[in-house]
Structures are given as structure tokens and as C-alpha cells.
Design goal:
The complex is a heterodimer. In chain A, helix 1 runs antiparallel to helix 4, helix 2 packs parallel to helix 7 and helix 6 packs across helix 11. A two-stranded antiparallel sheet of chain A has the order 1-2. Chain A is mainly α. Chain B is an all-alpha fold. Chain B is built from eleven helices and two strands, in the order ααααααααααββα. Chain B has a two-stranded antiparallel ribbon. Classes of the chains: A mainly alpha, B mainly alpha. At the A-B interface, helix 2, helix 3, strand 2 and helix 14 of A face helix 2, helix 3, helix 4, helix 5 and helix 11 of B.
């Protein structure tokens, strides 16, 4: 059998493809749920119609997105059993519980209240309808928490013992699984990055309309909300990334050494900006480095010792027996850089935007604009950017909307590939986790079917998003402005069309 | 009753919930081709389940997740063993979810027609395949001493399992027709009732053969009781439908599903996946289950969360309790 087509390799490719794809929708779902809920809250509190129009606009994009997130999530739940049955047998006692919790607590919440929200505009009083979208938002966050706790256990198994007779890992302390520092810092990091993603999405789309001077009221509000989200979330992403990094240095030194292509341990270890290495011989041929920074990232100390790939590999060989315990170094190294690079550039763009569009009291009289006007982009005290530069800022904002999505994908590729050859670090190797009874042909079939289906749906989804982005916020109807006072809808006119129907 | 027995019951409850709820929304999906005369009627049908289908589907995800947590060996053997049928079900569920959400988002004739076709097939195929899957689980499949499924894809398509597929397909269609009669107004309501009678008679015939076959092969006194309840409820549902008592008819078709699933699980116990090669290689509630500690935590979670879920999901049905007809469907703005 060709090695490249071994069931393990295919199962890994399928997992990689379906998971990265699923995670394009997840962060947008998490953040857009909360941001839409925020806008709707503003509508309910102020009764300013621009907030309702913005809610409907972002809500629609949110729904187009969550539909994909939901259906691609079903695959995730099934494929552990389908492709990774030995993994499921070995860890089910521990790993299954957070998954079941996720379904029982979070999925029911999300899916039930999303139905109420979509169809409830003319069936629920205003405040109850608003509560529904907040419930959805809470559901998305709970869901993230449980699945990340499960993933954290794969990164750093705690609260378990090995039952030799049954040949499996068994749970001894569920609380430890839910609250270990790996889980908490991973949740913190992933949620911040999710909000960075949603913020950048909002900024990009608002910039599209503002550059064309369309829907100015709603888009100014959205731009502002997006920018603030990007900046706060970007900052938190960096902080939580640092926390998570330090946890990883302790728990998976190999991953972090590989992230830096640090072959041999040293004091004052450098942060590598660029490296090109020889994996076989175990050293870099070219490297551009900043001294001491890696030691600082690992231990908050510029002079501390950081172990290298070769050291950890030797240590693991002694501990776990002969073998190669190195992950794919180039992927880990570059994955780490793409994650940081793409994530932080959108943060920088948000920071710039927040300054350029600062509020009126910080601007001189002639640069202030009215409610219906596109803000001037003001870099220095008394002068707006030239039209050309202004156009460029809007343009860049549109194009960088995808940056956090790229950063998220690389973040996952980095952290999952960086853990190899382990599926559960130090406990179970990936090659021992696949389904022994599933044939090469079956895995290949499922990979091809799912990948093609996902590709088609990606085209459909993006076209639909573009259509609704371009259309802008909808005009409000009579029904929108007169929500019902009774649950189930007011019975003024029994034959009145529903406010929303499929 | 030990905790793994409790979880056997809870898994049965989750599947029952899934088939009860998604059963009628699969049925409604199938009716879009069998019952609706034009696009407006198709939309009436789709909108009867619009706010609830997603929540209904979560019963499946929970059944899957709970099986993973409570019976990891069962989850592993079932999902890796029934690989291709499950892949087909997965594809259907993906397409179906997207179809509901996206169908009305563009005005083009082609776009809408394609998604409508997708809704029909992606409702029909899983309706059939779930029956095939459960038929095989109850009948027993080729499982070796390592709990691996060693049969082929074609082994799963045996007469008993295929008959099981027909039962779920017809039963869900009947359940969907009865639900439609309960949730719509106008001409479509009348036609749904007429169609329900026709489908119901076929269902009764197929289900009777399948359940008796199950009883003869694997049954005991308890499963016989469930069988009788299922058959009586189905006949009563038909009569209630005939008499125009739509609420009763729906409740009774629901009881049919509950009793039929109960019967399958009763004839399964204490196995969860019997081996047809050697009875010592069967997966049972004991050898497939998680540790008592895990089961205890799961029990607490289920005890708190399940009533809440029933409560707020039930509330959703109450919020959307009004019947709908073509007059309630507005042409969406594009």
C-alpha cells in the first residue's frame, strides 16, 4: 500500500480539512451572535431605528454563516467514531463526557433559541425576542468551552488513570478536565480570537459601504462597534496567546521548540523571524533571530534556558521508547508565524481605524461630520487623509476582513500538528487511534465526498454572503416597528403573513 | 438497576426523542413532493417545521454524544462499522440544513427548485437508512472478538434491515402527514388527512410484519407489550385521523414511534450490539460502558439538563402553535 494513502494519512487529511473548514464558521458564529445581540439591545433600549436595521443586516449574515457552522459540526461529532474508533474506545470514558455536555447543554440552547429568534419577530414581545439571541450567544460560548476542554485534554491529559485490564483511559477527576489551565487559557485565547474575527468582518463590510457612501448611519455604527471589538479582542488575543504559550512551553516543549525551529536548547533563546532548516540533520541553514525573546515568551525571563527539538526528542525517546517524536517542523514553524502575523495585522489595522475615525470632541470643528456623513479619516491633528489614502484605508479594511480567518486556521493547524505524533500527548499516538476495520477505500470515499460537498457549499455560501452584503440593511416594515405584545403574536388579523418565512 | 442500565434507558430515550421529533420533520420534507401542488404549498409545509427542525436534530447529536460518553465501545463499533450508510446520512443532514436556510434567499426559479429537490431526498434517504441501521443493530451483525465490525456494506442490506428501513420511511411519512394536518389550514389540511390514511394503512402493514418478525427472533414478554401498544396506537391514530381528530392522531402516531423504539431496545437488552458470529463477542451494557464515575457525572448532567430542554423546546412549540396556510406566506424581499 502506498504510504501516502494509508488510512491513517487519509483520516488525518479528512479531519484536517473538515475541522479547518468547520472552524471558518465557528468564530464568526460566536462573535456575530454576541454583536448582533448587542445591536438589538441598543434598539430595544434606544428605539433608534438604525440599530434595528443594523441588527437585521448583521443578523442575516450571521444566519447564513451559522447554517454552515451547524451542519459541518455534525460531521465533527460523527467522525471520531467513523475514522478514529480506536481513539474513541481508548478515551471515550473521558473525552465523550464534554461532548455529551456540549450537545445536551449548548447545542439544544443554540438551536432552539435560534429558531425562536429567526421566526419570532412577530411572535414574541420585544424583550423576550431579544433574550432569545442572547441565549443563542450563551449557547455558542458554552459550546466553545466544552469542546475546548475536550481538546485541552488531548493537549495535556489530566484527571485520568489507565485501566490496563480494559486497555483504556478512565476519568478520575472531571473537574480537573474542565478547569485545568490548558483549558482555561485555550478558551480565553479562542474566544478572543473569535471576537477579533467578527470585529474584522464587521469593519471590512462597513468599510465597503462607507467607501461608497451608502447606508451611512448603520455602517458608521457598525464600523465603530467593529473597530472597538477588533482592538479589545486583538489585545486580549495577544495576552491570552502569551499565557497559552507559557502553558505550552511547560506542557509540550516539543511543540514550542518546533514553533521556533530551535534545534538545540540554549540560554537567552532567540525568537526566529525567518528560518530555513534541514530537518534530517536537525539544524537551520538560515535564520534571522531576535535574541532572548523566546526565553522571555517561555519563562518571562530573557536569559532563561529553553530546550530544543533535539533535546526534547531524546528525552521523549528515553521516556516512551525508540521513535521520532518530532512533529512536522516547517508546518509548525510557519503555522505559528502565519497565526501571529495575520492575527496581529488585523489588530493593527483596527487600532489605526479607531484613531483615524475618532470622535468629534477630539477633532477640530471643520473635520466634524453630521450623523449621515461618512467620517473623515484624520491622521494628524488638523488634516484629513487625502481622498486617495482614504480610499486605500477602506480598501485595505475590506481585504483584511479575512485575515483573522487565516490566522485561526493556522492556529489550529499549528497546535494540532505541533502535538504529533501524539493524538493524546504522551498517552496515545495518532497511528494507534484510527479505525482498524475501516478500509482505505471507505476513508478515501468519505474524504472525497465531504471535500467536494464542502467546496460546492463554500461557493454557494460566499455568493450568498456577497449578495446580502451588497444589498445592505433592509427597509423596516410596519410589522418590524410594531412588535407583538403577547407570546404567540397578537391576534389582530388571523390571515396576516408571517414576518419571516423560509 | 445499575448506572449502565440507566444509561441504556437514557440512550433509548434520546433516540425515541429523535425519531418522534425529526420523524415528523423528515415526513414533512417527504411530503413536499407527495402533497404540495405548487410552490406556495411547499413553503407552507417547510414553514410548519421552520422554527423547530434544528432543535429536533440536536436529539441525534445528543444521542451520538451520549453514546460516546456512556458506551464508548458501542459508539466506536457502530460508527466505524456502519461507515458508508452513516456517511450518506451525514451528507443528507448537511444538505438538508443548508437547504432550509438558503432556499428562500434567492428568487431564481432554478435555485429554489434545486433546494426543494434537496429537501425531499435528504429527508427521504435518512428516514429509510435509520430503519436499516436499527434493523441491523437489533438483528446482530458480524462483530469479532475485538468488537470490530468485520462484515461488508452489502451485509447491512439484508431483508430484515431493509424492511426496518421501510417501516421508518412509511411511519415518518405518516407522522409527517398527521403533523401537517394538525399545523395547516385550508385545502392542504384536507389533503394531508387523506394522504395520511393511505400512507398509514401501508405503514400498519409493513410495521406489523417487521415488529412480529422482531418479536419472534428476539422478543420477550415486555417487548410483546410494546409491540401491542405500537400496533394499537397506530390503528387508533388512523381512526382518529379518519374522524378528523388531528391532535389525537398526532399524539397516537407519536406513541407508535415511542412504543416501536421501546420494543427495539427491549429486544436488544442487555446487548447493545449483538454479534452474529459468536454471542460472546456481543457488545453489552456491561462490556461497552464507561466507568461508574463517568456515568455518575453524566447522570447528574442529564438529570438537570433534560427537563430544561423539554421545557424550553416545548415552549417553542407553544409559541408557534398557530396553524399556517398559503395566506401566511409572504413573498420575501430580495
Amino acid at each position: 500500500m502506498e504510504l501516502a494513502l494509508a488510512p491513517e494519512t487519509l483520516a488525518r487529511w479528512q479531519f484536517g480539512i473538515t475541522t479547518v473548514y468547520h472552524f471558518l464558521f465557528v468564530p464568526l458564529t460566536i462573535s456575530l451572535a454576541a454583536l448582533t445581540a448587542g445591536l438589538q439591545t441598543a434598539w430595544v433600549r434606544t428605539e433608534n431605528e438604525k440599530y434595528l436595521r443594523a441588527t437585521k443586516f448583521w443578523g442575516k449574515l450571521f444566519l447564513i454563516n451559522i447554517a454552515m457552522g451547524v451542519v459541518t459540526g455534525i460531521v465533527q461529532e460523527f467522525q471520531f467514531g467513523m475514522n478514529w474508533s480506536d481513539y474513541s474506545r481508548f478515551v471515550g470514558d473521558i473525552f465523550g463526557a464534554p461532548l455529551a455536555f456540549e450537545a445536551l447543554i449548548a447545542f439544544f440552547f443554540e438551536s432552539t433559541f435560534i429558531g425562536l429568534w429567526i421566526f419570532g419577530w412577530d411572535k414574541l414581545p420585544k424583550k423576550i425576542h431579544l433574550a432569545c439571541i442572547w441565549m443563542v450567544s450563551i449557547g455558542t460560548i458554552l459550546s466553545a468551552y466544552f469542546i475546548l476542554a475536550a481538546n485541552s485534554w488531548m493537549q495535556h491529559p489530566v484527571g485520568y488513570k489507565i485501566d490496563k485490564v480494559r486497555g483504556r483511559a478512565e476519568l478520575t477527576d472531571f473537574w480537573a478536565v474542565l478547569t485545568q489551565n490548558t483549558a482555561l487559557s485555550q478558551v480565553f485565547h479562542t474566544l478572543s480570537a473569535a471576537f477579533l474575527t467578527g470585529g474584522a468582518f464587521m469593519v471590512g463590510i462597513a468599510a465597503y459601504h462607507l467607501a461608497r457612501k451608502k447606508h451611512v448611519r448603520e455602517m458608521k455604527t457598525s464600523l465603530r462597534l467593529g473597530l472597538v471589538t477588533v482592538v479589545i479582542a486583538g489585545l486580549l488575543t495577544a495576552v491570552s496567546g502569551d499565557v497559552l504559550g507559557k502553558v505550552m512551553f511547560k506542557q509540550q516543549p516539543m511543540k514550542m521548540a518546533a514553533a521556533e525551529a530551535l534545534w538545540d536548547g540554549e540560554d537567552s533563546a532567540p525568537f526566529s523571524i525567518f528560518a530555513y532548516g534541514d530537518v534530517e540533520k536537525g539544524h537551520n541553514s538560515v535564520a534571522i533571530e531576535i535574541p532572548g525573546v523566546l526565553s522571555f515568551l517561555a519563562n518571562d525571563d530573557f536569559t532563561s534556558y529553553v530546550p530544543g527539538i533535539n533535546d526534547v526528542n531524546k528525552a521523549e525517546q528515553q521516556k516512551f521508547g525508540p521513535g521520532d517524536y518530532r512533529p512536522n517542523i516547517p508546518v509548525t514553524f510557519w503555522g505559528f508565524r502565519w497565526m501571529i502575523g495575520f492575527g496581529m495585522s488585523s489588530f493593527a489595522l483596527g487600532l489605526a481605524g479607531l484613531w483615524l475615525t475618532r470622535k468629534r470632541f477630539m477633532l477640530p470643528q471643520h473635520l466634524r461630520v453630521g450623523e449621515d456623513e461618512v467620517p473623515h479619516l484624520v491622521l494628524f491633528k488638523n488634516k484629513a487623509l487625502s481622498p486617495k489614502l482614504t480610499t486605500w484605508y477602506w480598501r485595505i479594511a475590506i481585504w483584511t476582513l479575512a485575515f483573522p480567518l487565516i490566522a485561526n486556521s493556522w492556529g489550529w493547524i499549528f497546535t494540532e500538528m505541533g502535538r504529533q505524533p501524539w493524538v493524546v500527548y504522551g498517552v496515545l499516538q495518532t497511528r494507534d487511534a484510527v479505525s482498524p476495520g475501516v478500509s482505505q477505500g471507505e476513508v478515501l470515499t468519505s474524504m472525497i465526498v465531504l471535500t467536494s460537498l464542502y467546496a460546492i457549499l463554500a461557493v454557494v455560501e460566499i455568493k450568498l454572503l456577497v449578495k446580502y452584503v451588497k444589498a445592505g440593511p433592509p427597509e423596516l416594515t410596519e410589522a418590524d416597528l410594531n412588535p407583538p405584545t403577547k407570546i404567540g403574536g397578537d391576534s389582530r388579523d388571523a390571515d396576516k403573513p408571517m414576518a419571516f418565512s423560509y | 438497576m445499575e448506572l449502565h442500565d440507566v444509561w441504556f434507558v437514557l440512550i433509548a430515550v434520546l433516540w425515541t426523542g429523535y425519531f418522534f421529533l425529526e420523524g415528523f420533520d423528515f415526513g414533512v420534507g417527504i411530503l413536499t413532493k407527495l402533497l404540495a401542488r405548487d410552490r406556495a404549498e411547499k413553503r407552507v409545509l417547510i414553514n410548519t417545521i421552520g422554527p423547530v427542525w434544528d432543535g429536533n436534530e440536536v436529539w441525534l447529536l445528543t444521542a451520538g454524544g451520549a453514546t460516546f460518553a456512556a458506551f464508548p465501545e458501542w459508539y466506536a463499533t457502530l460508527f466505524s462499522g456502519f461507515y458508508l450508510p452513516l456517511l450518506v446520512i451525514l451528507v443528507c443532514l448537511i444538505v438538508r440544513g443548508v437547504a432550509f436556510e438558503y432556499r428562500a434567499k434567492r428568487p431564481e426559479e432554478n435555485w429554489q427548485r434545486n433546494w426543494e429537490t434537496a429537501i425531499f431526498w435528504s429527508s427521504l434517504i435518512p428516514s429509510f437508512l435509520w430503519g436499516v441501521a436499527f434493523g441491523n443493530i437489533v438483528r446482530g451483525v458480524k462483530i469479532d472478538q475485538h468488537f470490530e465490525y468485520v462484515g461488508t456494506f452489502w451485509d447491512l442490506l439484508n431483508p430484515y434491515a431493509l424492511l426496518g428501513g421501510l417501516v421508518t420511511l412509511t411511519l415518518f411519512t405518516f407522522h409527517g402527514a398527521v403533523f401537517t394536518a394538525l399545523k395547516t389550514v385550508g385545502d392542504i389540511r384536507e389533503r394531508a388527512r387523506k394522504l395520511a390514511t393511505r400512507v398509514g394503512i401501508v405503514t400498519a402493514a409493513v410495521a406489523l410484519v417487521f415488529l412480529v418478525w422482531t418479536q419472534v427472533d428476539n422478543g420477550d414478554a415486555k417487548s410483546l407489550v410494546a409491540l401491542v401498544v405500537a400496533v394499537v396506537a397506530l390503528i387508533a391514530a388512523l381512526l382518529a385521523n379518519q374522524a378528523g381528530r388531528e391532535g389525537w392522531s398526532f399524539a397516537l402516531s407519536g406513541i407508535t414511534i415511542v412504543a416501536a423504539v421501546a420494543m427495539l431496545f427491549l429486544s436488544l437488552f442487555p446487548n447493545v450490539m449483538p454479534s452474529s458470529l459468536n454471542e460472546h463477542w456481543s457488545l453489552t451494557v456491561t462490556n461497552a460502558s464507561s466507568s461508574p464515575y463517568t456515568l455518575k457525572i453524566m447522570t447528574w448532567c442529564a438529570a438537570v439538563a433534560t427537563p430544561l430542554v423539554l421545557l424550553y423546546q416545548g415552549w417553542t412549540y407553544w409559541v408557534f402553535r398557530k396553524r399556517i396556510g398559503t395566506q401566511h406566506i409572504a413573498e420575501p424581499a430580495h
